[in-house]
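hey
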């Protein structure tokens, strides 16, 4: 399983904390025992055969059950230990987890936190994660969801004072259509539509873009471009806040910024909750929500 996940003996051995020769010999013995080749080896790659893929498909749920069974012992420890794997979007790793992770790891020094950033919605179980963090509209119905971080966030617009002096300050969202904007799209290719709200009026826009970045990973580039005076950027208010406070960016249409629910930690209710995840859930429930 380690070799298949890592795509090679060297990285598989690293994940297991052993030597590549030891792992290679273990695979050789397993192939001899099963009398079937499990990996096609070349000088550049190691790829599972069809037989290995069928075996892996059956092994994954079985190994999860073994891990869950072993984790029962963890409940008898004075302090929980083990690895907690989380799948989160970049915005959460940037804006939410810094206020939680240091305190959590100090409270539970025997827990190792493995955080993977990913803008796609993933099947946390199939991906080998204990839990994920996403926003409400992207949660599956059969998952248990626990609020984490700020309960309310806002979508904000900003531009440099120089840009606004040169191109004017829009008074209504529709005026954005005549401005240069710096926008994001999801990894799927879908554009992040700008939705602005005031009172009962809702305006949804796809303004022209001078720069298009991938949501999350490309956000800092878009902000830097806005600071350089290249256009109006739209992103989480918390991500823009330091630049608004320093004055290098200026709020745009602030009375139109919409609020939305903060993120949720989600996990399967069909499995035993591992002790590291239970400790994390209890910790975030006890921590006051950030603003």
């Amino acid at each position: 399983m380690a070799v298949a996940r890592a795509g090679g003996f060297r990285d598989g051995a690293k994940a297991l904390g052993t030597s590549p020769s030891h792992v290679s010999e273990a695979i050789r013995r397993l192939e001899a025992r099963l009398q079937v080749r499990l990996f096609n080896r070349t000088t550049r790659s190691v790829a599972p055969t069809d037989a290995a893929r069928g075996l892996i498909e059956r092994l994954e749920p079985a190994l999860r059950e073994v891990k869950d069974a072993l984790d029962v012992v963890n409940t008898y420890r004075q302090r929980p230990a083990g690895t907690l794997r989380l799948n989160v979007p970049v915005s959460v790793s940037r804006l939410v987890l810094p206020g939680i992770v240091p305190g959590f790891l100090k409270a539970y020094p025997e827990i190792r936190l493995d955080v993977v950033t990913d803008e796609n919605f993933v099947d946390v179980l199939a991906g080998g994660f204990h839990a994920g963090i996403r926003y409400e509209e992207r949660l599956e119905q059969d998952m248990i969801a626990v609020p984490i971080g700020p309960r309310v966030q806002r979508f904000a617009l900003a531009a440099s004072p120089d840009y606004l002096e040169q191109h004017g300050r829009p008074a209504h969202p529709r005026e954005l259509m005549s401005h240069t904007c710096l926008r994001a799209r999801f990894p799927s290719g879908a554009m992040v539509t700008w939705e602005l709200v005031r009172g009962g009026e809702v305006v949804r826009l796809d303004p022209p873009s001078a720069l298009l970045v991938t949501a999350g990973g490309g956000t800092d580039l878009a902000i830097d471009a806005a600071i350089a005076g290249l256009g109006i950027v739209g992103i989480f208010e918390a991500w823009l806040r330091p630049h608004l406070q320093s004055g290098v960016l200026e709020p745009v249409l602030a009375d139109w910024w919409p609020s939305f629910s903060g993120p949720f930690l989600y996990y399967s209710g069909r499995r035993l909750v591992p002790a590291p995840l239970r400790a994390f859930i209890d910790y975030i429930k006890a921590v006051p929500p950030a603003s």
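The longest helix spans residues 50-71. Residues 11 and 17 are 10 Å apart (CA to CA).
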